[in-house]
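User: I'm putting together notes for a lab meeting next week and I want to include a structural view of one of the chains we've been expressing. I don't have a solved structure, so I'd like a prediction I can at least talk through. The sequence is below, exactly as it appears in our construct file.
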Amino acid sequence: TKQAIGSIYFSSVNEIILLNCNISETSGLTRGVVYIEGFGTFYNMYNSFQKNKYSGVMQIKQGARYFDHRNRYLENLVLLEGACVSLTGVKFSHIIGSSIRFSISESDGAALWTDEVNSIVLDNVTCEDNSAKGMGGSIFVSKAESFAINHCAFFKNRASMNGGGIMLKKVIVTNIISSVFRNQVSNQSGGAVYLTGTDSKCQIYVYNS
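Assistant: Thanks for the context. Below is the predicted structure for the 209-residue chain, given as structure tokens.
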């Protein structure tokens, strides 16, 4: 398909479930393959997204809760601002057991891009061989109250700017627990993780990583 708005588009819906879908080789202009704006809870589970070209595969905006469980994102190309999963103005997000591999962003964060998301939790997520022409080869997080990664793996992610694996900007509390970072590359600073733009309230904790 070729269109300005996503292949799947919802607005002002209380509950959305996307389950066992295979979406591949779509192309578009300004919005993601899946574009959701204004929602209560969105369950995105056991889906496959491969070789899509959009401004973000998942564009999720202004919602309460987003759950991304055991999805597979492979060889996606993000042409504008965004990532395979892009979240803006979401109160809570939980990504568990998903894998994001061999994806490219023309801006920041090829795997996950967030702005003004209160709480972000990643459990058992694998980010491998992703690259961004901006900051955060795999993940870019801006303006969050808390960001936590537990038992996650980051392999061979690259950024042309800061944060080869992860770029954190104005994140108040960060927890990195039992996670692996190998062969992360940044052309500037922070090969694995780069944290900036915070004040004295910023707290970062790294355990067994």
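A couple of points you could mention at the meeting. The chain has a mean pLDDT of 91. The CA atoms of residues 27 and 53 lie 5 Å apart.

User: Perfect, that's what I needed.
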